[in-house]
Write a structure and sequence with these properties.
mainly alpha, two-stranded antiparallel ribbon, 10 helices, globular
């Protein structure tokens, strides 16, 4: 099984044990670079491919619009950010070829990697902690194909640079006279604010933060969250014909963030209770009080 997706890597300038991210310090690797995002030989490949197959068949423009309508009132639950994070402690992302542990562990690994290498940008550390928080939708019986994995655009032609692109052929929008074209329902350089991404944890958390008044994170933080799983865009360079200047700024920050999200993954567990006071204080600074989900 061969993948059409480019291996995700940056120039290795700091020795064989680490990988460099533009503008950020080195991140120690738990395994060789080419073993991350391995969609050919991962031990979790069966569940990963199944999740993407269901996602690429079922995520249509109509489905995404229905989900946006369903969640627009944010009336599924109300809780603090830390309470929501703890709900992810037992949630395992079935699209992830690298990890087989609760998502809270991944959240802490990402945040700690950013904290150690770039402590001056504490808002980015917090983004590392909460970036996958939208996966809390599993509490409301959302299937994994509607929560996890790489995102892509709906309402226009599917990208062949997505993982497992062959399953798009079974998507009802694939041969649509409008949705199956390069621009689809969009116009040149309309900007990513004007497009519909496949529904998942990125979009849900973006809407939660955008529509809760007590969110004090900068707008770029929300944009990083919304696009961090948009691999065909930030890694493969797809959809640039729809981007505007704002999106290029977002792209710069996503590329700074993404190596921490990917390369911090490890089977080594962190001490949650020891780290908790620091992150509670950080949450209180930027995301205080109760949030509606």
């Amino acid at each position: 099984r061969k993948s059409s997706v480019t291996p995700y890597r940056y120039r290795n300038e700091a020795g064989s044990g680490c990988i460099m991210s533009p503008g950020l310090a080195a991140v120690e690797l738990a395994k060789p670079v080419d073993k991350f995002r391995d969609y050919e030989t991962s031990q979790h490949l069966d569940r990963v491919e199944r999740t993407y197959r269901e996602m690429h068949i079922n995520q249509t423009l109509d489905f995404v619009l229905k989900k946006k309508s369903e969640y627009k009132d944010l009336n599924h639950a109300s809780m603090t950010i830390w309470e929501a994070l703890e709900k992810l402690d037992t949630f395992v992302d079935e699209s992830d070829p690298d990890l087989d542990m609760g998502n809270l562990e991944h959240a802490l690994q990402t945040a700690e990697a950013i904290r150690k290498t770039h402590p001056g940008e504490d808002w980015l550390v917090l983004v590392g902690l909460i970036h996958d928080l939208g996966k809390i939708a599993y509490l409301w019986d959302e299937p994994q194909w509607a929560m996890v994995g790489d995102t892509f655009l709906v309402g226009c032609k599917h990208s062949e640079k997505c993982v497992f692109p062959q399953y798009f052929k079974q998507n009802p929008d694939y041969n649509h006279p409008v949705y199956g074209t390069e621009f689809g329902i969009y116009s040149p350089h309309c900007g990513l604010d004007a497009v519909h991404l496949s529904w998942g944890h990125d979009e849900l958390l973006f809407q939660v933060l955008k529509n809760n008044a007590n969110c004090k994170l900068p707008s770029i933080a929300l944009n990083v969250i919304r696009h961090h799983s948009f691999y065909p865009w930030h890694h493969e360079g797809e959809y640039m014909h729809l981007c505007n200047e704002k999106d290029l700024e977002t792209l710069t920050w996503v590329k700074r963030f993404q190596p921490f999200d990917l390369y911090s993954k490890s089977e080594q567990r962190l001490d949650k209770e020891q780290l908790k006071p620091y992150y509670l204080a950080l949450i209180d600074k930027y995301l205080p009080g109760t949030f509606r989900f």
